[in-house]
Amino acid sequence: MGRSGWVCQLVALLAAVEACHCAHNILMIAIDDLRPEIAGYGYPRMHTPNMDKLISEGTMFKFNYVQQAVCSPSRTSLLTGRRPDTTHIYDLWTYFRSAGCNVTTLPQFFKQHGYKTAGHGKIFHPGHASGQAVFGKGDDPPSWTEPYYHSPDKGNFSTRQYSWHTPDYPEEEFPDSQIAAAGIATMKRLAGEPFFIAVGFHKPHLPFVFPKKYLDFYPNSTIHVADNPNPPQGMPALAWSDWGELRNYQDIARMNLSTAIAKDMPDYYAKELRRAYYAATSYTDAQIGKVLDALDASGLRENTSVLLWGDHGWQLGELGEWCKHTNFDIAARAPLIVRTPLIEQSHGVVVESLVEHVDIYPTLVDLAGFEVPHGLEGFSLVPLLKDKSAPWKKASFSQYPRGLPKGTKKDFHSDHSMGYSVRTAEWRYTEWVYFHNKTLTHDFSRVFGVELYDHRGDNGTSFSAFENENLAHKPEYASIVTELKAMLHAGPEGQARQLREAQKKMTTTSEGNEQIASSQDSRPSHPRWRHTKERRAHVRQSPIIVH
User: Fold this and answer.
1) What is the pLDDT of residues 470-516, one digit of tens each?
2) CA dihedral 385, 121, 310, 422 (to 10 degrees)
3) How far apart are CA 231 and CA 240, in angstroms?
4) Is residue 59 over pLDDT 70?
5) Rounded to an integer, what is the distance from CA 142 to the centroid of its chain?
6) What is the CA angle 147-150-153, rounded to 5?
7) CA separation for the pair 497, 519 (Å, rounded)
8) Which of 240, 312, 381, 244 is nearest to 73 (CA)?
9) Reported pTM
């Protein structure tokens, strides 16, 4: 080989070493059905030491909202960075790439930029909703470079016989324990390469299955029913869910509970379910601790940002509701924690600005040092990680589909209604409107129900004190309804425009270190973060669309 060949090889080797050295790793932890009832969120009765530690070392987003409070629509929205009316995902069956939203997902973006991407457990909603019919397997295969991991023993722990139970197995045989172990093994295997590792835990999703010892953290004498077990006064019927998911379990079905809008769960069983949910949460917290401890032991912590999220909230008898499937705050609000070594001032911080799941995709891309791609419908949270009082959106948006009220004339045989909801710092306002299934469009002129709930004084530490009375039709709140109606109809685009305008007013400080022209340009100041133009030029680029 001639001198020029050796030089070329040397240049290529140095480029590879530089790329590996500069790339910032991402560890994303997802938790199924976890509401923000965590000690670090202001609920000291909970035993969640590992999430609490992550909060103390990172930034807790107290008011984070999902785009639709059910698994696949919420996860699809987060992983594509787009809202349900863009993804066209409103159910647990439809695959976003087959529904007109064939876009680059969050892990796929990192894959296209030279990262190893590895998924474990539940990240996308599994099965048909993530490509089973297209690829012969779910979990969106285009998103990953590594073989996807599912616990082989999951079936032994997912019986419909009981809504909760404590099988007599060693803890390491429980599915989430195996998922944690697999995530740790992948982390060790990929330690020398830039990685995006996603670890998704199943609990506290139904059935609540966990090792019995976790009940010890919650003695029976400490468990109480919800303080507000009755449906909101004046609530339109469409706002209600009859918690069919829970009724599918045989122990619940045997009770023959009414599906009427009322408190119906017996107190003794409500207490059992609440205790089991808490215990399942503590079990998952222990698995999170194993993963985070392994990251520390690997020596990769100083080059890895960790982001933890729940896919939506969960109702434990509040408002007479169970499960998710509503637009109530308890269902739409989910935990979000970010720990990054790139922004020192983000450690031990609580952000009270309203953020959304669609903000996660641009945030992780931003933290890794890449330009945020066009088409995403959220904003990078980096400005808030740098300064919790930075200009931000004044509202978050959620939605949930329902059937049509009886007797409603349909334009198409499968048309239904959609509840569009806007949450501000002080109010939640929802309109239930006609939704055309054929065109996938809504009609704000055909309204079936309106809700207004007062959140003034809400500090995020009560699941019972708010949304107990619908104020929408009280004359004294007419001006609030008018204001929020305009905000809801302007939609997320209206908030996006206002945020961009506010961020443009930010001035450049000395030597340009803190210029923020938009949320997409607010970069963490850390040497490992920096991706030069030359670095980007060597990154392997793949087509954005997967056909």
Assistant:
1) 999 999 999 999 999 999 999 999 999 999 998 888 744 434 554 44
2) 100
3) 8
4) yes
5) 21
6) 140
7) 12
8) 312
9) 0.91
CA distance 134 to 357: 26
Tokens standing for residue 47: 């035993």
3-state class of 338 per DSSP?
strand
What positions carry a catalytic annotation?
71, 125
- In sequence order, which residues have a C-beta less than 8 Å from that of residue 154 and are 6 or more positions away? 175, 202
> pLDDT tens-digit profile of 332-370?
999 999 999 999 999 999 999 999 999 999 999 999 999
3-state per-residue secondary structure call for 168-234: CCCHHHCHHHHHHHHHHHHHHHCCCCCEEEEEEECCCCCCEECCHHHHHHCCHHHCCCCCCCCCCEC
CB contact at 8 A, 390 and 384: yes
**Distance, C-alpha 262 to centroid of its chain:** 29
400-445 pLDDT per residue, tens: 999 999 888 888 878 999 999 999 999 999 999 999 999 999 999 9
**In this structure, are residues 240 and 230 in contact, taking their beta carbons and an 8 Å threshold?**
no
Measure the CA–CA gap between 58 and 517, rounded to whole angstroms: 25
**β-pair type (315-316, 322-323):** antiparallel
Q: How far is it, in rounded angstroms, from Cα 103 to Cα 87?
A: 9
**Cα separation of 281 and 277, whole Å?**
6
For the record, the structure tokens of 528 come out as 């490992």
- How far apart are alpha carbons 381 and 362 in whole angstroms? 8
- What is the rounded distance in angstroms from the CA atom of residue 428 to the CA atom of residue 180? 37
Compute the distance between CA of residue 128 and CA of residue 91 in angstroms, rounded to an integer: 11
Residues 361-383, mean pLDDT to the nearest whole number: 97
Burial class (CB in 10 A: 0-12, 13-18, 19+), 436: middle
